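This is your field. Have a critical look at both lines of this record:
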Amino acid sequence: MSTPKNGAPTNDAPRNDPPIDAEEARLAVGKPKKHAAGVPAVRVSMTMALKQMGVRKSARNLLSLNQVEGFDCMSCAWPDPDPNHRHTAEFCENGAKAVAWEGTRDRVGPEFFREHSLADLEQRTEYWLEKQGRLTHPMVRRPGGTHYEPIEWSDAFALIGRHLNGLASPDEALFYTSGRASNEAAFVYQLFARAYGTNNLPDCSNMCHESTGVGLSETIGIGKGSVSLHDLHEADLIVVCGQNPGTNHPRMLTALELAKQRGARILAINPLHEAGLLKFDNPQSPRGLVKGTPLADTFLQIRAGGDLALLQAIGHLLLVAEEANPGTVVDHAFIEQHTVGFEAYRKHADLLDWDEVLTATGLTRAEIEGAAAMFAESKRIVTCWAMGITQHRNAVATIKEFVNLALLQGMIGKPGAGLCPVRGHSNVQGDRTMGIWEQVPDSFLDALRDEFGFEPPRHHGVDAVNAVRALRDGRARVFVGLGGNFAAAMSDTEVTEAALRSTELSVQISTKLNRSHLTAGETALILPTLGRTEKDLTGGQVQRVTVEDSMSAVHASRGRSEPAGELLRSEVDILCGIAAATLGGRYDIPWRGFAEDYDQIRERIGRVVPGCEGYDQIIRERGGFTMPHPPRDSRTFPTPEGKAVFTVSPLPVLTVPEGRLVLQSLRSHDQFNTTIYGLNDRYRGIHSGRRVVFISAADLAELGFADGETVDLVSEWSDGPAGTTLTERRAEAFRLVEYNTPKGCVAAYYPETNPLVPLDSTALDSNTPTSKWVIVRLEHRA
């Protein structure tokens, strides 16, 4: 077996076929759907809820979901309507699946771990692991042990404290966060890490929307979107780019439907014809169920990676239209008053090479001109994007191009217009607001110092990719995971899993069993936590937490169900227990007080986090409050220049070797991030299976493969000049499915395809894994 410089095996490694669940062996392929939601969404939601939770618990949980006095959905971060405009059933199909997944009556306790060794569990699929049920007891795998065994909470905390205090440097510890953690838990977590002495706070944003944060921060001065839900309702053009709302953010379809009813047009840009971009059968209205609402007025089936070229071409055409009819397209007053860099941008746009644009996008010039006309004719434009944009080599440059178009037409800071990155996890934006960031600014650290009386570390920590490198290279020895499934979510699966196994201590704070528990360190802990749906009576009183959605709205969340087990603790309680066992009375931080009364945490948040002044009081307001956003609120831009910044980005030549394809990873409809709710993807016609590759008929014919054939995928990547040795990765046993996708572009589900993304293949400036641009070849199986 040959091994490249980063230590991962190349394609001549021996074949190791993936484990197949019994249900997965019945893979069947049907026709893709041309509409989303409707009666099937209701039926699937209710079937899963009733099966997992029963009648009473299903009614209690689902009717509390996204309500003012209820709990916030643990799935996507789509905002809630105003309190007076919420449906009784204010949830979507995937929200119902998330609640049922967490509220299941199945349990994973000590007897389960006595029966199943780590070696046994490693052979199970991700789907099988998660459907076993809720974790109920703190568990430990001792050095050399083959099984997890029970441990008392106090002993678990003491064990963590001993390991952390025994490290040569605080930077040998990594503190990872998923996007599900509450604001209170996130604030306590980052406070503990910095009081301990490190800024090593990688989070799931590093893997998904980091490109958005970098691109927006450098151009408008804040790494968050500039719109509210009302803006979508009032827009006359909504651009949906690199996003599949029907599966990933289904409640967005209601907002798009309302905008359409008010006269908006929708421009969809995506490699695949997703059902949720075509038509919405709203299950909450008779008209929606009977007739439905067509959504996309224009659909551009772009090649993967071609968005930067498309947006530059649209900008060029808008400037041409303005020159032909001065004062009708470009907002010169906005540009003069609020921006810098316009002349350089204009000169760059004049040099557009149409041959490069058409090659990169796969579109015709007429299609691009039609899209540009939609921009030119619109007075209120909202531009939405998700991970189809952020996980490319040139993701940051592409996001800056969205900003260029918005600045060109003055589409920031006015009703019905703005930039709308749609976050994929319920509180990933709130976690960043609370300080979960390896590069937090000095002003935040100054506020921590002034509030808590210690000097935080000033050097930057590691992000998710660099966390794996640190573990792999022996520079980190302890990994603590607050939620999530780092092993499955990260790129380069084999390298990531080996890195996690190299730790002296791994700690996973979790609700359910997943792959990260099996990639255990020499000593490994599983600490079971309360879910979002469950009552939190920590400190002998009813506690509530807060979250922030994609549009900067912050609101309270309070579970209603009984906990899955008597030993479960809240995330806040667990983190405070770890902090107290590690730091003792250092700095006089009241860890026990924080755990017993979350208002004490919110009081400190109000004095540390910008925009959260009086946090413990304003969060009591019905429906919460919206964080300040200077570009949106007052057209002021907190950049070094004091204005919004037009940028110039070279248009790269994206080449794919002959006989190779560009793979993008995506979710199935029965999935949220790495959580697999089921094995169906009914919108794409996939049933009882996940190891499929969507490929065009033209590519099947040209490359000599057949629809339905099982193949191996081999990725090829090099960070050096042409002619250098390629790094290769292999993922085995995928069924080819003929599908309407651009020639040269294929798609498959993650995390099954994460092994194909090399650790070093990341986006420029943001270091986000390039999961939407993986060059692969197909190999016949012997």
In short: The first strand starts at residue 28 and ends at 29. The radius of gyration is 25 Å. The chain is about 35% helix and 15% strand.
